[in-house]
Amino acid sequence: MNIDNFYGSECRGELVSLLSDLVKIPSHKKVDGREQQVNDYITRWLYENGFEVEEKTFGGISLPLGIISGNENNNSIMLNAHTDTVGVEYMENPFSGRYDDKRIYGRGTVDTKGSLAAMMIAARVFKENFKASTDIFVYPSLHEETGECEATEAISKTIKPSYCVVGEPTNLDFYFFHKGLWFFKLISKGLSAHLAVPEDGINAIEHLFTAIGSLKEKYFNPRTKEKDGMTKFTVCSMRGGSEGIPDYAEALYNRRTVPGESLKDDFQNINMVLEEIGAIDPKFDVSVETYPGYETELMPMEPPTDEEFVDLISTSLAGIGNRGGLFPGWTEGSIFRKNDVDTVIFGPGPPAYAHTPFESLEINQLVSASKGYLKILLNHNKRFV
């Protein structure tokens, strides 16, 4: 079967128009209602295109679950991409949805409204031309960018599909496992004093620098070397200082983990290094804390257990993308996988374009991703016919 026949100029135009419309609707955490407006648009689209729709509410925000009912409830498959985006600071016209003959521009094109638009069109093409052997779900998830994954925790346990395709910017490659994520802060406390008499104070910034250097030497670098460079400790912001000797300073770290690592182990090892410094300098007062909003570990995603599913994905995406190793980003795929849902990560756009002021997506990648999602649905359908 040549699925290119389903993606003529009319379908390509609908893909571009759909993504453009999604981008025009702001859906980051500082928007009133957050994802509600974009979810309302998706709900209307699903009804208008003949899907069964089950509306669910989480934290006061309703979201639609698009459904294509199959002959059996077992072995269902879910297409998932999140509708929220990061903020738009330093970005010109983030919600224009502008496009030319090659690209679509704006916040969310890559991460991950492009994946979602491609999934929606693929599911509609399938529904209009084929009979489903198992249930198929289209699930636009909430709050992925802020790590508030209540909806996905609930969906993965109650709907509990057997398989899930999570749309993320993979540049059309596909991944079966990925890194975990959390944040932590180093908090340095000192004693304020006039700059003319610095010896009367305790400089919190200097102690913070001491902690950063010691941790890098004694824990971060050895752990990174042990894990062949795959595990990461990245200081991403600092705050502190005053008109006198600073009595407070903090550094925020982004942590990327591989299977087998834990927040508990990190804190134990970090505290050991800090205690060693404190034993030498009794004025040293630096502690480690979780970052508000990221108290819960966002765990790595483990590989699938069903090798036939792995083969099905590889066959479906042959000629579209390549199988990757360890995906560097975190996705809600880890939540599905934790709840025994075999999962693959696949979507359009380079990861380097996500979260940037120049976020945009090639139209050809958008179309290729939608073809890939359709091929997965078709081969899944054949497997369980």
What topology emerges from the helices and strands here?
Blueprint: H1 9-23, H2 36-48, E1 52-58, E2 61-68, E3 72-82, E4 103-105, H3 113-129, E5 134-141, H4 150-158, E6 163-166, E7 174-175, E8 177-178, E9 180-189, H5 204-226, E10 232-240, E11 248-257, H6 263-280, E12 286-290, H7 307-316, E13 326-327, H8 333-338, E14 342-346, E15 360-362, H9 363-383
Parallel strand pairs: 3-5, 3-6, 6-14, 8-13
Antiparallel strand pairs: 1-2, 2-5, 4-15, 7-14, 9-11, 9-12, 10-11
Helix pairs in contact: 1-3, 3-9, 5-6, 7-9
Q: What attributes characterize this protein structure?
A:
Alpha-Beta Plaits; four-stranded antiparallel β-sheet; 385 residues; Aminopeptidase; alpha/beta; 34% helix
Verbal overview:
This protein folds into two domains: 3-178 and 300-383, 3-Layer(aba) Sandwich (Aminopeptidase), CATH 3.40.630; 180-290, Alpha-Beta Plaits. With 385 residues, the chain is of the alpha/beta class. The two termini are 17 Å apart. It has nine helices and 15 strands. The strands form four sheets. A seven-stranded mixed β-sheet has the order 1-2-5-3-6-14-7, with helices on both faces. A four-stranded antiparallel β-sheet has the order 10-11-9-12, with helices on one face. The longest helix has 23 residues, at 204-226.
